[in-house]
Design brief:
Blueprint: E1 6-14, H1 23-42, H2 47-59, E2 80-86, E3 91-98, H3 104-110, E4 118-119, H4 121-131, H5 141-151, E5 167-172, E6 178-184, E7 204-206, E8 210-216, H6 218-224, H7 226-235, H8 240-253, E9 258-264, E10 269-273, E11 277-283, E12 288-290
Parallel strand pairs: 3-4
Antiparallel strand pairs: 1-5, 1-11, 2-3, 2-6, 5-6, 7-8, 8-9, 9-10, 11-12
Helix pairs in contact: 1-2, 2-3, 7-8
């Protein structure tokens, strides 16, 4: 008997919606992805196929900090990270600080069947060549201008305005399989070589029981090991909402700065945030909703 598919996506978290151009443009961007990806699940496609497609669409939207529109690091270069975790196979794969590619999520997907499933910059370059993926420059004028202005003050800000625009997709398919995918352009203005949480189980994790994608300050997400913590708590018998509530109560007590979207095998949807706004939308089987209010 087919299970009712569920889908939740995010385009980051932050203090205000204005940083992304206003409430309605953000909602329209997120809903457009839901309206493309959810029918895939209804047509019987796998959770991992839905996650890859959703991440691709979000990476292609310069409103978000992933793929096209990624922020620049302190040396003026774009380095992106992405990962996928297939909950059915409990298989994690990803790339760290990759460059000159339009959709880093494709690299993460390709590594699902590899013996070496997490590659850093040089390894991802070789993978791009092996796959025959065309070279692509994800830089936008807005991100370049932001970097030029920040350089005047020697990068006094901790991160770029859209640095918390990391994207993520979590899906439950008709076979009851879960998958999570996360992709980011990084924090912005960071030290060369800094590694994001987005290609770690701390920021992206899934098993047969639950799946989670995180967004926010990567160091805070790593310190809390958010995604894996929530999934383990569900596996140990907590409800998804209880696991999210407990994990975010702990995060609040330590002044962390992030958000997370979650699904479990029963189809429960949950999210949490320590920020003012979580830019997320979902389809619960009966209709589309969001977390923007």
């Amino acid at each position: 008997m087919a299970i009712q598919p569920k889908l939740i996506i995010h385009g980051g978290a932050g203090s205000t919606v204005e940083s992304k151009g206003g409430l309605e443009p953000v909602r329209q961007s997120l809903y457009a992805v839901i309206n493309t990806v959810y029918p895939m699940l209804l047509n019987g496609e796998s959770a991992i196929a839905a996650v890859v497609k959703g991440c691709e669409l979000l990476e292609n939207d310069p409103r978000f900090n992933a793929g096209t529109g990624s922020v620049l690091q302190s040396d003026g270069q774009i380095r992106m990270s992405a990962s996928i975790m297939d909950g059915d196979r409990q298989s994690f794969s990803g790339v760290i600080n990759t460059a000159r590619v339009k959709n880093p999520i494709y690299l993460a997907q390709a590594l699902q069947t590899s013996d070496d499933r997490v590659l850093s910059d040089q390894g991802s370059v070789e993978l791009i060549r092996e796959l025959g993926i065309p070279v692509f420059n994800p830089l936008t004028d807005e991100r370049l201008y932001e970097w030029i202005e920040e350089r005047k003050t020697n990068f006094s800000r901790k991160m770029a305005d859209v640095a918390m625009g990391t994207i993520g997709v979590v899906a439950l398919d008709q076979n009851g399989h879960l998958c999570a995918g996360t992709s980011t352009g990084g924090r912005g203005f960071e030290r060369i070589g800094r590694v994001s949480d987005s290609a770690m189980p701390a920021g992206n994790y899934a098993t047969a029981n639950a799946a989670v994608s995180c967004t926010g300050v990567g160091e805070d997400i790593i310190d809390e090991c958010v995604a894996a913590k929530i999934v383990v708590r569900v596996t140990d018998g907590m409800s998804l909402q209880a696991a999210v509530d407990k994990s975010f109560a702990e995060a609040f007590s330590r002044n962390r700065d992030f958000g997370a979207i979650c699904l479990d095998a029963s189809g429960a949807i949950a999210w949490g945030k320590t920020t003012s706004v979580l830019f997320a939308a979902y389809h619960d089987g009966s209709g589309i909703g969001d977390t923007l209010i």
